[in-house]
Amino acid sequence: MTGEGLLRVEDALECIVGRRLNRFVVEVLVEGKPLKAYVNNTGRLFDLLVGGRRGFCKVKESEKTNCRLFAVEDQGAGAILDTNLQMKA
Question: What H or E segment, with its residue span, contains residue 80?
């Protein structure tokens, strides 16, 4: 499999998931720096948003958050959290 048909996200930053602060915000570490990441999926996601898990985000400067968490690593692949990207995939 060459991955040609897979969804690709440009300019993704690797991060480490910290803890969920509320329904829409997760604390992440990007290059060792703590940031607040927006998550548009309000589901519980207990088994995906686990502290220490590798995640992927995009820069999103706003008043409340620094980036947008769109996926986390799960079983060697990316589990898409972002509901908009889920529809594209």
Answer: strand 77-80
What rounded mean pLDDT belongs to the chain?
90
Q: Tell which residue, 44, 87, 51, has the closest CA to residue 72.
A: 51
CA 22, 71, 14, 16 torsion: positive or negative?
positive
Residue 66: pLDDT above 90? yes
Closest CA to 35 of 12, 9, 79, 68: 68
pTM: 0.86
CA-CA-CA-CA dihedral for 48, 34, 38, 10, to nearest 10: -80
Q: Are 12 and 41 in contact (CB under 8 A)?
A: no
